[in-house]
Amino acid sequence: EFATDPADAAKALDPGLLMFTEGPTHFAIVLEKRRNNSRLGIDVDASQGQGLVIDSVAGGLVAEWNRRHPECKVKVGDCIVEVNGITGDAQEIFKECRSTWKLEMKLRRGRQDDGGRERSVLPTLSVVTWNILS
Questions:
Q1: Rounded CA separation 125/101 (Å)
Q2: How far is CA 14 from CA 61, 92, 123, in A?
Q3: Of 3, 59, 73, 117, which residue is 20 to 30 A from 67 by alpha carbon distance?
Q4: What would the pLDDT profile of 11-40 be if each residue is shown by its tens digit?
């Protein structure tokens, strides 16, 4: 017997298999560099290819943003996916962050495991169906 309704299918799954996120998965911020403060104050990992994963937040404009916007803080594990319309290439996003004074950023909210490593914000679901015909 097959479930055609997603709600019925969900009832049959072990709840431990699903990971849900709280709040939005993407958000936007605007940072403006100044002569006396042009440092973003973040360390990033560009090895993901399409965005910059934030490894640390230590001072600078991002920490200032976090103080002023506690409801929308930039956190370790978040990923910068677009800056000033540039998207899809971590190296180009990195160059834009270094060379431009006004940064309109879009970030994907990250999740972290117990070791501080980023986890996907998307649910992970594996369903195996065995159909044994007699």
A1: 42
A2: 43, 42, 13
A3: 117
A4: 665 555 444 445 668 999 999 999 888 899
The encoded tokens of residue 56 equal 């640390």
Give the alpha-carbon dihedral of 68, 87, 78, 63, to 10 degrees: -30
Q: From CA 119, how far away is CA 82, in angstroms rounded?
A: 19
For residue 80, what are the β-bridge partners?
Answer: 52, 107
> CB of 107 within 8 A of CB of 26?
yes
| 87 — pLDDT class (breaks 50, 70, 90) | very high
